[in-house]
Each structure stands twice: as structure tokens, then as C-alpha cells.
Amino acid sequence: MSAPLATTRPAIPGGPSLLTRLTTRVRHGELGPLPVVVGLVIIWAVFGVATGGDFFGAENLVNLAVQCAGPGLIAVGVVLVLLLGEIDLSVGSVSGLGAAVLGVGLVNHGWPFPLVLAVALGAGAVIGLLYGFLFARFGVPSFVLTLAGLLTFLGVQLALLNTSGSINLPADSFIVRFSLFEYLLPWQAYLLAVLGAGGLFLSDLRTSRRRERAGLASRPLAVSALKAGLLLAVLLGVAAYLATDRGTGVSFAFLVVVVVVVNFFVGRTRWGRSIYAVGGNVEAARRAGVRVHVVYLTVFMLCSVFAVVGGLVSAGSLTAVTLSAGTGDVNLNAIAAAVIGGTSLFGGRGSAWSALLGVIVVQSIANGLSLMNFQGDAPRFIVTGVVLLLAVIVDSVSRRSRQNHGTV
Amino acid sequence: MTTTELDLRPRVPATEPVMSLRGITKRFGAVRALSRVDLDVYPGEVVALVGDNGAGKSTLVKILAGVHQQDDGTITFENAVVSITDPAAARELGISSVFQDLALCDNLDVVANLFLGHEVTTGGVIDEEEMERRSWELLRQLSARIPSVRTHVAALSGGQRQSVAIARALVGEPKVVVLDEPTAALGVAQTAEVLNLIERLRERGHGVVFVSHNLADVQAVADRVVVLRLGRNNGTFNTRDISYEDIIAAITGATDHGASRNPFTEEPA
């Protein structure tokens, strides 16, 4: 007969203080956005000094923000696929294909932009569905599947552009204005900042109300107010500084809104929860009743659609669709952005924010190096590659640390 | 010997079994894994299913979980003959299984694991507060020692992970809980924790099927012991009436209870 057990009641709901939880998390390898924020500070400091402060000029930061939009949108899709523990190596080609559809449709055929947009997004959706189907049906590893896609859709892009070569986009077309020439008026940027910080505060307020009603410990309102206040100050400061030049690019604001929306769906819906579950333990998810195939299909589809959106914005900001659109480092920049931003390559960890943070790092490197008069791709490739390597090392080390702490 | 809230006496069985298996037979090709096995589970009772390797315990558990279907025999659940065609059907009936590998997502916290695939939503948004409240309630009822329901499962000990897996099996309020070797990989203290949890399941009125190799654990928590040997019943005993040696004898075949108790069980040679 077993001895009677002294059973401890669970601790007070809510648990230890914020600071204790943070340090425990870091020690256990739950780093979140900490490494990328540190990395960004270092990179900015280096470029700030090396360019004699030119890097922080309002004009340059306005440019930097605009340069982030296209690759950032592609990275959002990559984050989703990485959360599943899979990868999409063809986002560059798919973005190039989207750009080719844009050029051929808009300029060569004179289609209205909404039609071009629908066709391009539709092509992305079909590609993603195809990936999801092949992955689920035949169990082809996503890495090989999308590698095949990389070549195939690059071929389709070249075929589409075969007759015309590169296509210049009219400067007054919607996509070019959206990607390059449209900036938020100061009051619009301030309004967005207030909406963002206010939304965060209201969401926190709602959570703590609901927690109190459910009899759970809730975080003091002062913390939420402080957090929202800080965010508001930062956003207003950025908006005001950018407004001293042309202002916040519409395309960058669009990226931020997309990140917020995707983050909501990933963090707060059953669909999002099932993405994390599949990325953490597919078999457990399947047995718990998660429709795993549906998750794969929707995520691969969204990834390709975001790749197309990013491709359109990138083409718009170049004012041209070229044969090399989506080739070169576009692929790896998007994947690097997601990983540098803190989304794990091993699946199940990360958030949409890592697309934004990561792309700011990647584009800061490109931007800073060009300010320093390093010409050509070589230095950019090397530095971005090294930073990606560092990010992957941080990812792997923190994973190992989690495993060590997981077997306490 | 015990606290007031912990009553270790065997329960007076309810009059009607919640689940009743009769003549369950399962073949894999030429191998007969189960031959006319009977099993009754009463509400608020812990039935230990014991037997040597290859006795058919796992096959029986998989039939209850809907992973395999029996070739012959009937399963009666709450007085109705049912067929368990797949894992979802088992869950809907009210049979919840916890397998050895636990099937937890390490990257998610305890709440997310408890409600995985069955998240509570309000207006399409996950209702974290309601799920967390219910998680605390459930774990408190089970007296499970989890530091915080917001801990990631990766940071839990083996016993705590087992507790989470068992608690998850209770989220749909099943009538029968099947535990496959829940103490196999655990140390002494963690085993005690899980056995304690099984007592709580009984108090909550669940019928528990407890598969184990460890006879000390069996004697600690089970009300009845059902012995399988070579895919057949080899005796059903009240735990208080039987010694450790008796169970060993039944498991190894030194004593043959199958024929005497179920004269029709034996297949023609």
C-alpha cells in the first residue's frame, strides 16, 4: 500500500513576478525577441558610427522603411511555414512569378489592377495548395518539394517575360504609388500610433477584467498602462521623426498592419493554436483531433500568397518587373528575416513579429552597407549570411538549453 | 494511516458496469492476439489489467481506444452495444486513453495542451481565461503538482507530464479512462504522484483501466485485477483477497483460472 501523499495545492494562479518569469524563461532557452532586439541595436550602432550618423538621417530611415515592405511581407508567410516546422524555399520564385503576372497583365495586356491582383494572388493560392496537397498526400519533404517549386516557377516567370523581357511599370500606377510614392500624412501616422497603443491597452484591460471574473490573478493595470504608454511614445516618436522627411511609407504601414493581423490569428484562434501544435508534435496534434492536413494546406497557401504580395510590392518599389525579380537573395533574405527575427527553424516557436524585426535587420544591413559605399552584392551577401548563421546558432543553442531544462 | 480526504478502501462496486467487454477476439494474420476476452469496468473503480509481454494488454487497450477493431465479441457501453470505429468515436462515447508516449506538445503550456483540439472559444477567439480557470480547477481536483498552468510542458518533470496527460484525458468528462503503463518511466516519488492521481479519478467516479507491469503499483491502487495470459483471461481477483504471489502465478500460468472461471473461453484445439 502506498503511503498517503502530502499533496500540495497548485500555487496562487498568476504565479511569480514578471521579472522572475522573464529570467527563468531566458535561462530555459525561451528567448523570444530578445536576441534580435540586441542584434538590431548593435547593427544600428555600428552603422550609425560608420556612416557618421547618415544612417539615422530621416531621409535614410524613410527609405529603409520602404525597403522593408516587400521582403517583410514575404517573410510573414515564411514565419507561418517555419512555425509548422517546414520550410518554403520557393518564396523568391513565387514572388517573381507574381511580379511577372503584374507586368504582363498590367502593362502588356492593359488589365485593370484589381484583375491583375486577383490573378496573381490566385496563382499564389494555387501554388500553395499544390504544395500542401503534395506534402500531405505523398509526404514529400517540404524542403525538396519547394526546391522543385523554386526552379519550376522561376521557369514560368521567365516564360511569361520571354517576349517582352523586363517591363517598366508606369509611375502613376497604383502599385508603384503604393510601394514607393505614397506616404502617410503626419496626422494619419499619429492616428495609427494612437490606435495601436490604445488597442494594446484595451486588449490588456479586457484580459485582466476577464481574468478577474474567472477568479485568476491579473497583472496590475499600471503595468499595462506603462507598456501601452511606452509603445505610444515610441510610435509617435518614429512617426514624428519620419514626418520630418517624407513620412511613413504606406507600404511599411501595410506591413505592420499585416503583421498585427496575422499575429492575432496565429495567437488567438484555434487555427493558430493548431499551427503551433503541429509544429511542436504532429502526432500529438493529430491524436488530439487537430485536422493536420487542413493546417498544412492553409499555411502553405498563405505562404505563397504572401510571397506574391511581397513580390508585387517589391516590383512596385523598383517600378519595374525584371527577369531577375525574386531571384538572387530574395529567397534567403525572407527566410533569414524570419529566423533572425526569432522564429525557430525547428517549428512551434516564434511569432509574426519576427518577420518585421528580422526584415528590419536584413534591410538595415543592405542599407547601411550601401551608405558606406560598398558597391555590389558581395559585402551584403557575406554580412547577411553571417548574421543568419548567428541567428541559427542562437536558435539551436536555446533549443538545446530547453531540452536540458525539459528533463529536470 | 491516511488523511480524511484519502480513502483507500476498495469501493463497493456500482451494480451496473459502465463498460462491459464480452468474448473480444482479435487476430493479426495468423496470430491470435486476443481470444474471447471479457472485461467489466464499474464506475468509480480501478481495474488493473496485468499480464506478461504478449499477453494482449496493448491490443485490448488499442481496441478500447479505437485504434484497432475487434474481429469478434461485443462492447457494451452504458447498456448499449457499441462499435468503436476510430479514436474519435472512442472519445465521443466517453472512453479516454492515455498512451505511454503521452502525446504532449512541448512547445505549448499546460493549458494549451489540456485543451488541444478542444479549445474553448468566444466569438472565434480562444477564451484563455475560461480555459485557464478550468485547468486550475481540474488540476486542483486531481491534486496534481503543477507549478503553474502557464508553464511550458517541456519544463515539467516526467510525473508532471504524466499528470498533464491524464488531466487532458478528463477534459471531455469521460466515463472510462484507460491508462497504458502510466508509471513505467517514472521514479519513486513521481510514481506515487501518479498513483495518487488515479485515486482521484476513482473519487470522481470514473471507471479506470490501469495497465501495468508493476504489481506493487497495482496492489496500491487497483480494486480488481484482471489477468491476461497469451491473449486469454486468466482470472479476475479482488485486490484485497489476493497476494502478490497469486497474481504472479496467474500471470505466468502457474495457476490456470481461465478454464475454471470461463468454461466456454477455451477454443477447440
From TrEMBL, chain A:
<dbReference type="InterPro" id="IPR001851">
    <property type="entry name" value="ABC_transp_permease"/>
</dbReference>
<feature type="transmembrane region" description="Helical">
    <location>
        <begin position="223"/>
        <end position="243"/>
    </location>
</feature>
<keyword id="KW-0472">Membrane</keyword>
<keyword id="KW-1133">Transmembrane helix</keyword>
<feature type="transmembrane region" description="Helical">
    <location>
        <begin position="355"/>
        <end position="372"/>
    </location>
</feature>
<keyword id="KW-0997">Cell inner membrane</keyword>
<feature type="transmembrane region" description="Helical">
    <location>
        <begin position="31"/>
        <end position="52"/>
    </location>
</feature>
<feature type="transmembrane region" description="Helical">
    <location>
        <begin position="183"/>
        <end position="202"/>
    </location>
</feature>
<protein>
    <recommendedName>
        <fullName>Xylose transport system permease protein XylH</fullName>
    </recommendedName>
</protein>
<keyword id="KW-1003">Cell membrane</keyword>
<feature type="transmembrane region" description="Helical">
    <location>
        <begin position="64"/>
        <end position="84"/>
    </location>
</feature>
<keyword id="KW-0812">Transmembrane</keyword>
<feature type="transmembrane region" description="Helical">
    <location>
        <begin position="143"/>
        <end position="163"/>
    </location>
</feature>
<feature type="transmembrane region" description="Helical">
    <location>
        <begin position="113"/>
        <end position="136"/>
    </location>
</feature>
<keyword id="KW-0762">Sugar transport</keyword>
<dbReference type="Pfam" id="PF02653">
    <property type="entry name" value="BPD_transp_2"/>
</dbReference>
<feature type="transmembrane region" description="Helical">
    <location>
        <begin position="330"/>
        <end position="348"/>
    </location>
</feature>
<comment type="function">
    <text>Part of the binding-protein-dependent transport system for D-xylose. Probably responsible for the translocation of the substrate across the membrane.</text>
</comment>
<feature type="transmembrane region" description="Helical">
    <location>
        <begin position="378"/>
        <end position="397"/>
    </location>
</feature>
<keyword id="KW-0813">Transport</keyword>
<feature type="transmembrane region" description="Helical">
    <location>
        <begin position="294"/>
        <end position="318"/>
    </location>
</feature>
<feature type="transmembrane region" description="Helical">
    <location>
        <begin position="249"/>
        <end position="266"/>
    </location>
</feature>
UniProtKB/TrEMBL annotation, chain B:
<protein>
    <submittedName>
        <fullName>ABC transporter ATP-binding protein</fullName>
    </submittedName>
</protein>
<keyword id="KW-0547">Nucleotide-binding</keyword>
<keyword id="KW-0067">ATP-binding</keyword>
<feature type="domain" description="ABC transporter">
    <location>
        <begin position="19"/>
        <end position="255"/>
    </location>
</feature>
<dbReference type="InterPro" id="IPR050107">
    <property type="entry name" value="ABC_carbohydrate_import_ATPase"/>
</dbReference>
<dbReference type="InterPro" id="IPR003593">
    <property type="entry name" value="AAA+_ATPase"/>
</dbReference>
<dbReference type="Pfam" id="PF00005">
    <property type="entry name" value="ABC_tran"/>
</dbReference>
<dbReference type="InterPro" id="IPR027417">
    <property type="entry name" value="P-loop_NTPase"/>
</dbReference>
<dbReference type="GO" id="GO:0005524">
    <property type="term" value="F:ATP binding"/>
</dbReference>
<dbReference type="InterPro" id="IPR003439">
    <property type="entry name" value="ABC_transporter-like_ATP-bd"/>
</dbReference>
